[in-house]
Amino acid sequence: MENSHHNLLPEIQNSSAWYGPDLAERRDWIETLSESELAEIETTTRRLADADVEIPSIRRDDFPLPTLGIRLQRMLDEVLNGRGFVLIRGLPVERWSRLESAITFFGLGTHLGNARSQNAAGHVLGHVKDLGLSSRDPNVRIYQTHERQTYHTDSCDVVGLLCLQPAKSGGLSSLVSSVTIFNQMRRRRPDLLVELFKPIETDRRGEIPEGAKPYFSIPVFNWPVFNSQAGLLSTIYQRQYIESARRFEEVPPLTPRQIEALDLFDSLANDPALHLNMEFRAGDVQLVHNHTLLHDRTAFEDWPEPERRRHLLRLWLACPQARPLPTVFTERYGSITPGDRGGVMVKGTRLTAPLEAQ
């Protein structure tokens, strides 16, 4: 079993194991775009917009970035192998059409990885917006509401967000290192940490691949190899969906030990000594490594005017240079081949990039 030696593994001491207050005092995780880099982007974006291009068909060669492309590779290396996130600042979305913003964001994504479908409708360009829905509906995903999301991972290597319009108040982005949570649990309650290396059922929320169960069963913490020196602890987590999986008859109730372990995990994620909050401005792009970070969004109050409502575009990316994942991830990711894994694929899915939230 791939996790059989987890109780012998030491704490992970590298740049992925960070504490929020330390990073809050720094700004090296903010990358501000230069005028020449923006000119490079706009030239390519306008050409593709004029050509009436289908967004899902855009490839890296269609979106040349001679200067910025090199910088994006450095940022991606920091996301995949270092701190786990970056905030790119300065896209002038206020002067762009929705189409231009969408082409730019998707084009930048082609320099980082391959876009994956984010839902059963095949959307490779997602819209994070309050659609007036409630997470109490088991077929609704929380990004479609104004509720707090709670700390979770998405089903891809890297998630990208482009802020088109911030909320009137709230809606802060919050990140926490799942590696730091592992270290803290190992220090405080190794007996509970053991529970999170065992498979646990998580609800697919009605988005079920052909031949699959309506839930998947993967441990929260996972090692891809027996060799602890690899240090590649990969985490998959969404507490609400773990709990809503209990609606299925064949899924047993959570045990008291599981609940205690999950509660400790959540309390650590929610501890201000661990996590980092950041405010999104219009034109900000956030890139987050799902295997070493969890992300959250605080609840928010929106503007009354429809055109001012909080609106983010989202990409799920499979990165060719991403880390190895344990075999059990095939249950959720479909494949564990770097560059061709993750996302939500159901029978008949056709990739689309709608310009409005649906």
What would you note in describing this structure?
The chain has helices spanning 20-24, 35-50, 68-81, 98-110, 178-188, 190-193, 239-244, 256-269, 330-333, and strands spanning 30-32, 85-89, 114-115, 126-128, 158-165, 169-170, 173-177, 200-203, 215-218, 221-222, 234-235, 276-278, 285-289, 293-297, 300-301, 311-318. With 358 residues, it is α+β, with helices and mostly antiparallel strands. The strands form 5 sheets. Strands 1, 2, 3, 4, 5, 13 and 16 form a 7-stranded mixed beta sheet that branches. Strands 12-7-14 form a 3-stranded antiparallel beta sheet. A two-stranded antiparallel ribbon has the order 6-15.
Descriptive terms for the model:
about 350 residues, alpha+beta, seven-stranded mixed β-sheet, three-stranded antiparallel β-sheet, 9 helices, globular, disordered N terminus
